[in-house]
Amino acid sequence: MRGLPEPEALAPGRRWEAQIPADRRKRLGQWLTPWWAVEAVTAEALTGLGPRPVILDPACGDGRWLLAAGALRPDAILMGWDIDADALNAAAEVGARAGLTLQLSRRDALQGEERGVADVILGNPPYVRPQNLPAADRARIWARYRSATDKADLYAPFMERMVELSRGRLAVVVADTWLSMVSFAALRDLLFAEPIDLLARLPAGSFGARVGTVALVIHPAGRARRGALSPEGLVVHGPLTRAEGVVTLGETPALTLDGDGHLGDRWRLRMGVVCGDYARWVHPGPPEPGDQPTIRGRDVARFVIHDRGERLRYDPAAILQRTPYAAPKHAGLFDVPEKVVLSGASGAVLRAAVDTARRFPLDSCYVSEGAGDPWALCGLLNSASVNAWYGARFTGARVKAVELHGLPWPAGDLRALAEAARASDQAGVDAEAARAYGL
Ligand SMILES: C[S@@+](CC[C@H](N)C(=O)[O-])C[C@H]1O[C@@H](n2cnc3c(N)ncnc32)[C@H](O)[C@@H]1O
Questions:
Q1: Of 2, 154, 284, 394, whose CB has the highest number of CB atoms within 10 Å?
Q2: Mean pLDDT for the chain?
Q3: Pocket test for ligand 1, best of 2, 15, 27, 28 (most atoms within 8 A of CB)
């Protein structure tokens, strides 16, 4: 898929990319978009556009989006901004090779208050985690942009800025974390207030990394289409839906579950301890005062926990002081006789077990608090019905509490389901969950 040939004019871009120092790539979020995606998304954005359109990529890198736009609309005014002079040199060379006139400026797109600078904004925003930003930049950006909240990535305020700069059309390829993570709730609200024409998932590995990516097109047509985009083209799966604040992007779900309310009405699912610096806080050695038994997502199998004997130096104040992104949580969440710990290899496979050893699980695990028998919840989460429901909707690499909160809760008595889960009886759990949902 990544082997598809790029136009020869982009060769200076790939040369530039090959020599980007690792620290600069991390600080400026420099990743080039696959050409097939640039071409397809640009074509979606430009349909029905009037004469002499102004088109801007405010993080243009080697100028590939401008190249695609210029090929489709030779009459366009093509503008590219980037904070990095080397990127702009590459873009200038790309433009010259392609015979295009590009108006290139070195600037920080996040600075400035102008609105509606271009008819169309194209591109792929920079990815920088807030802890990798200089403190002064972070403070300024987090004060200026309403989408810059919690642990949101820099791409959130950048997308907000892209909306400001546009006169109604925006087309980007972007990481998919904004669709479901709590830190991106403000960005979701902001983007869903715009006329979304298309939201399409790109194949896993499109960027050679494990990040999920989507194409988003905001366009006056506002057709709210949901689909999948690959080198073979765009497949539209149906209308875009948003339930419980979370966007569903899979193919039309094969299974709908009828329920009496949702899991999130009865149980609170949360992340376990986030400590940031595992080498410092987690150790396999003999217990020391204050230590708590811990497990990671990989230790959770269906119905069983494989305890590797690791311990967490549980000192919430010290953990928090070390990095502001830590979340040690309060001990009362974990130090309970029974709780459900949940993990997943991918969105399509859920694994849940009941913990009776008062463990303090680490990040990717989820801990539940709520009313009812935790074994019934454990059985449901491991059941074929719930896995089919979840896997059809969410394909992210990590299981997210916000996604599971929307799971329909079956009506009626779940005692037989809980008993099957206690016995680690997968077939029994599958049969009881199907019965509970009336399947
Ligand atoms: C993900 S790359 C995208 C490059 C190119 N548009 C593409 O899609 O292949 C993000 C680009 O944003 C630039 N960048 C980072 N911070 C920026 C800022 N504050 N203002 C403008 N450009 C920035 C980087 O130098 C990089 O070229």
A1: 394
A2: 89
A3: 28
What element of type H or E holds 388? helix 384-393
Distance from residue 178's CA to the centre of ligand 1 (Å): 18
Q: Which of 109-113, 241-245, 283-287 is predicted with the least confidence, judged by mean pLDDT? A: 241-245
Which amino acid residue places its CA nearest to atom 10 of ligand 1?
A: 126
Print burial letters for 350-371: b (CB count within 10 Å at least 16), e (below 16).
bbbbbbeeebbbbbbbbbbeee
The whole-angstrom distance between residue 67's C-alpha and the CA centroid of its chain comes to 28
Q: Is the CB of 87 under 6 A from ligand 1?
A: yes
Strand partners, 305: 300
Q: Is the CB of 29 under 6 A from ligand 1?
A: yes
**Distance in angstroms (rounded) separating the CA atoms of residues 72 and 38:** 12
Q: Which domains, and CATH codes, for the chain?
A: 8-248 (3.40.50.150), 263-436 (3.90.220.10)
First to last CA, the chain: 39
Distance from residue 343's CA to the centre of ligand 1 (Å): 34
Q: Which atom of ligand 1 is nearest to the CA of 154?
A: 16
Rg, C-alpha atoms of the chain? 24
Q: Three-state DSSP class for 299? A: helix
29 DSSP 8-state letter? T
What gap in Å lies between CA 325 and CA 192, rounded to an integer? Answer: 27
Q: Could you report the per-residue pLDDT of 65-90, keeping only the tens digit for each?
A: 999 999 999 999 999 999 999 999 99
**Could you please report the per-residue DSSP string of 228-241?**
EEETTEEEEEEE-E
Nearest atom (ligand 1) to Cα of 57:
6
Residue partners of 272: CB distance under 8 A and separation at least 6: 329, 334, 341, 360, 361, 362, 363, 364, 365, 366, 367
